[in-house]
Every structure is written in C-alpha cells, then in structure tokens.
Amino acid sequence: MLKPLWFIAEFCHRNQKKGLNMK
Asked: What is the spatial distance between Cα 13 and Cα 21, in angstroms, rounded to a whole number?
C-alpha cells in the first residue's frame, strides 16, 4: 500500500532532523 504524501514528508522531515543531530 502506498503511503500518503503527508506521511512521506513527515518521515523525511524527521529523518533529516535525526541526521542533523547525529552529525
């Protein structure tokens, strides 16, 4: 099942924040 765009956007945003914190 394909996820809605808002879900993908939220996931990407959280992933980016985690990446910045890890660096």
From this structure: 13
* Cut 0.85: pTM above it: no
Cα 14 from Cα 21, distance rounded (Å): 11
Tokens 């959280």 sit on residue = 14
Residue whose tokens read 């924040």: 17
Q: Give Cβ neighbours of residue 3 (< 8 Å, ≥ 6 apart).
A: 11
Per-residue pLDDT of the chain (23 residues; tens, 9 = 90+): 678 888 989 988 998 888 777 66
Give the integer Cα–Cα distance in Å for 17 and 10: 11
